[in-house]
Structure formats: C-alpha cells, structure tokens
Design brief:
This protein is an all-alpha fold. It is 65% helix and 0% strand. The chain is built from 1 helix and no strands. It is rod-shaped and about 80 Å long. The model has no long low-confidence stretch (mean pLDDT 81).
Length: 55
C-alpha cells in the first residue's frame, strides 16, 4: 500500500486559485448568455404603445 503525501499549502493555494478563476470565467459566460437571451427577447417583442395611444 502506498502512502499519499498531503498536499502542501502552496499546492492547495494554487489549486484553489485556479478553481476560482475557472468559476469566475464560467459565471461571466453565463451572465453574457443571459444578457444576450434578454436582448433577443426584447427585440422580438413589439414596442410598448406611445403615450396617448390605446390598443
């Protein structure tokens, strides 16, 4: 049986920093997709009636 050495603090910090960068990159991409989806929906909807106009 092989004994696995515990990771050092520097290795742990580097792994966590990379995970944070990946998470931030993913969240930014999701935010951009949501904004693009909202813009696409707004473009498909008719404009609201101007003041004084009735449906």
């Amino acid at each position: 049986m092989r004994i696995v050495m515990a990771e050092t603090n520097d290795e742990k910090k580097a792994r966590l920093a990379q995970a944070l960068r990946d998470n931030l990159r993913r969240r930014k991409a999701q935010s951009r997709e949501a904004q693009n989806h909202e813009i696409a929906q707004e473009g498909a909807m008719p404009p609201p009636p101007a003041e004084g106009e009735k449906d």
